[in-house]
Design goal:
Blueprint: H1 3-15, H2 21-28, H3 30-40, H4 64-67, H5 69-87, H6 91-109, E1 114-115, E2 123-124, H7 128-131, H8 133-157, E3 160-161, H9 164-179, H10 189-193, H11 205-224, E4 228-230, E5 233-237
Antiparallel strand pairs: 1-2, 3-4, 4-5
Helix pairs in contact: 1-2, 1-6, 1-8, 1-9, 2-6, 2-11, 3-11, 5-6, 8-9, 9-11
Bound molecules: zinc ion (ZN).
Length: 240
């Protein structure tokens, strides 16, 4: 799951507005950010090296340190500490720890298999990316729709009107983020098009993912900073 994780940060921002949206966006994806870092550090090597040969069901990485159950407890403590340091109160960090729990539950539902601590220990989650990637994407779509419905119902109840630009970015990031995975669910670009893998692209799988995640964060931050209006009030509010 990628887009669905980002969606959960909007819920945290609504429930605990003392934390900045940027904090929630990064913490909701902290396990994946750590995975990217650990890939480059050689701890969680990810393949296939050439993104042209990658599909959801053939991507592989033992995300022992970034995603397994025992280290996750440590990442939750880190989220609480960073939240406290940044905002001077406990609540945003505690919300961040909750986001990490939700990240783990979502990956268990729709993602790669994770373990208690290492592949020799008990598996946690369905591992649907490898066995049924279309089902994994459908589950992510249902989850993301439910989360966004919660945000929109909450907005409506409180009379908050988002700008059209915000709604368009949400649709592009969440809808586009999931739909763009469908063609490569069980077929790589090489299999889809029949063209030979370009050698120069070897090693760019994880850098490409980093760019994708960063672009999604940038778009959602921009959307979150669009002014909102309140029903019945002419004043325009700029969210923090
Ligand atoms: Zn993850």
């Amino acid at each position: 799951m990628v887009a669905g994780h980002f969606a959960t940060s909007l819920v945290a921002k609504r429930l605990v507005p003392a934390g900045h949206l940027a904090f929630y966006l990064v913490i909701a994806q902290l396990p994946d950010v750590l995975w990217h870092v650990f890939h480059f550090a050689g701890l969680e090597p990810t393949g296939p090296a050439n993104p042209m040969e990658a599909s959801l069901d053939n991507m592989h990485a033992h995300m022992t340190y970034s995603h397994d159950l025992l280290p996750t407890v440590g990442w939750m403590v880190l989220a609480v500490a960073i939240g406290r340091a940044l905002f001077g109160v406990w609540k945003p960090g505690l919300a961040g720890a909750a986001l990490i729990v939700v990240h783990g539950l979502c990956d268990a539902l729709s993602g790669h298999p994770h373990f208690v601590f290492g592949p020799d220990t008990a598996q946690i989650g369905l591992g649907l990316y490898g066995t049924a990637p279309y089902v994994a994407l459908a589950l992510e779509a249902v989850f993301t729709l439910a989360v966004m419905a919660w945000v929109i119902v909450r907005d409506t109840r409180e009379g908050v009107r988002r700008s059209r630009a915000t709604l368009a970015v949400w649709a592009a990031v969440f809808g586009g983020g999931i739909l763009s995975m469908v063609p490569i669910a069980d077929l790589s670009l090489v299999e889809l098009t029949g063209i030979a893998p370009i050698e120069a692209m070897s090693g760019t799988l994880v850098p490409g993912l980093v760019v994708m995640y960063a672009s999604m964060v940038a778009a959602l931050l921009w959307a979150g900073a669009r002014p909102t209006t309140r029903v019945g009030e002419p004043t325009v509010e700029t969210p923090s």
